[in-house]
Each structure stands twice: as C-alpha cells, then as structure tokens.
Amino acid sequence: xxxxxxxxxxxxxxxxxxxxxxxxxxxxxxxxxxxxLLVAIEYVALNHLDARFARDxxxxxxxxxxxxxxxxxxxxxxxxxxxxxxxxRVLFNVSLAEQGMLKEYAVVxxxxxxxxxxxxxxxxxxxxxxxGMAALLAVEKLxxxxxxxxxxxxxxxxxxxxxxxxxxxKGAQVxxxxxxxxxxxxxxxxxxxxxxxxxxxxxxxxxRELGPGGFDCIINTQGGQTVAxxxxxxxxxxxxxxxxxxxxINTDLLFEKxxxxxxxxxxxxxxxxxxxxxxxxxxxxxxxxxxxxxGQIIPPEIKQVPFTADAVRDVLTMMVDKACPxxxxxxxxx
Length: 334
Hints:
The chain is α/β, with parallel strands linked by helices. It has two domains: 7-127 and 300-331, Quinone Oxidoreductase, Chain A, domain 1 (Alpha-Beta Complex), CATH 3.90.180.10; 130-263, Rossmann fold (3-Layer(aba) Sandwich). Helix content is 31%, strand content 27%. It is built from eleven helices and 16 strands. Strands 3, 5, 6, 7, 8, 15 and 16 form a seven-stranded mixed β-sheet that branches. Strand 9, helix 4 (158-169) and strand 10 (173-178) form a beta-alpha-beta unit. Helix 3 (129-142) packs across helix 10. The radius of gyration is 20 Å and the shape is globular. The termini are close together. The model has no long low-confidence stretch (mean pLDDT 92).
C-alpha cells in the first residue's frame, strides 16, 4: 500500500446489458476530504443488486460505472481526530447511485463504517452487509416477537439466510419456502418447517402445518405478483416486508387482509440522503459483525473470486437470475 501511488486499478462496466461489458482501467488515486477515510480495499462482495442493475441499468448511473456495494479494507489515511484511525480494518456499504468498490482504493465517510473485530476474517465480514442489513430491516419492520409465525418465500437466498436466524433469536416460528436442495441448510439455521416451492401441493402442506389462520408475518423476497400471492397466506392485520417492490394489489384483497406492508431498502439510506439512516447502517454492520464473532449468527458460505473482468463477468452471469446463499467475494490484489 504505497501512499506515493498516483493511480489505481478499477473494474468498470462500460454499458449495461446481459454481456456484462467489463474492463480493467486506471483511475487517479482518490483524495479524502474532511471526515473521510482513505481505505485500501481488500475484498468486495457481489450481490443480486449488482447483477440486476449491471444487466438492466440504473437511472442514476453514468457509464462507465464501477460495481460493488459492500467492501472491507484497511484505513491508510485518516485526518487527526477522525475515527476510525489509520490501520483500522473497516466494513461498509456504499450508495447505489455513486461509483462502487471494485477498485483498489476508496474514500468513505467515517460515520458509515464499522470496525471489524479480530475474530472475523475480512472475506467473511464483507459477505454480511447487504443481505444481513436487509434481513435486520425486515425483522424490524415486521415488529416480530416471540411466538409469532413468519414465512419467508424464495428462502434459498442470502437475505433469508440471515432472516431465519434473526427471527429465531426473536423466538418466532419460521416457515421457509425454497427448493428442496436448500432445506437441510435452512433447518440447520433454525427454520422450523421447510417447504418445497416446486411442489404442486405446497399450499396444502402449509395449511396442514399452520392451520387456517394464516401467517403473522411474511418476508417477500421476490416482488411482483408473488406479493399478492403471499397476502392470501397472511392473517388479518398481519405484517409483510417486501424486498423487491410489488405490482398493483387487488383492493378487495387489501380490505380482506388489512395488512401492514413495509418496503425494505438498504440503499434507501443513501438515495434519500439521510444521515441518520446511514449511521443506522453502521450500527447494523456492527451488530452483524458482533453476532458473527460471538457465534450467534452463522455467516453465509463464500466463494473467493479473482479481481479480473472475466471472473467477475462469470459471477454476474451466474447471479442475475438465481437466488443463492453463497456470496461471491472479489479479492483485490495489488
């Protein structure tokens, strides 16, 4: 990590599209301003948002654009009195509207980073923010408490990996709907019941275990028409947390169920320019790191990926239409 360097490598997306047009380029070294940290990036996690928007584009992006919302690295410069200090290992999530972290160095606001404890390796830490924070926000919006029933659809993904565990810590009864190959892992994480989403009689199976009343709470990870489908399984005045938006919902169904529906958006903290929300990301990052360090939360499986255009392109292609608990993490070599 040479402070005398004037340029750094960055992996740019030249245009959106299914071919994921990536190219390694040189960029000027970033210069930190007041209350910013200069961080030498060690790992960057890739998630479904990176893949989806790399394919479809995002309204606030200009090309070329750098992907990568979650990163961990070492502070190599901090102004006097700015915390965390030089040498600290930090974890952070960044704004979807700005350039991402697939690069060697970055400047980040000091109030939005979480210090990584020695007990948590960097490649594990970087796999926590986006999915882990989404799960924490979902559980928070649901006002989940002991004895309630919670259903998670498309539970094979990384958000469900955390949501199952945090729901069990709240004392909830967890019903996970996912492909059969994921059932063993989900029950090991704490799910009380696992249903095969591909089975023709899945609705009948759920009713047999749950009874006629419906779920107290539901986490919908898919969005679209599945939200209306999930509403039919919700009890009257139940709570639902949606991670990917939803289509128009039939008014009769809304009157029948009288649901409380909350939208979960980790990136909303940045897009709304809310300092309080950005600091809340930091607190959630600290909670995730602490819970993993103490063994309360099992982190997702990771797969290390080289910092090359071809390797990242292959990962994005794999992730774009497939929810998967394995978190690809790009190791930034200098």
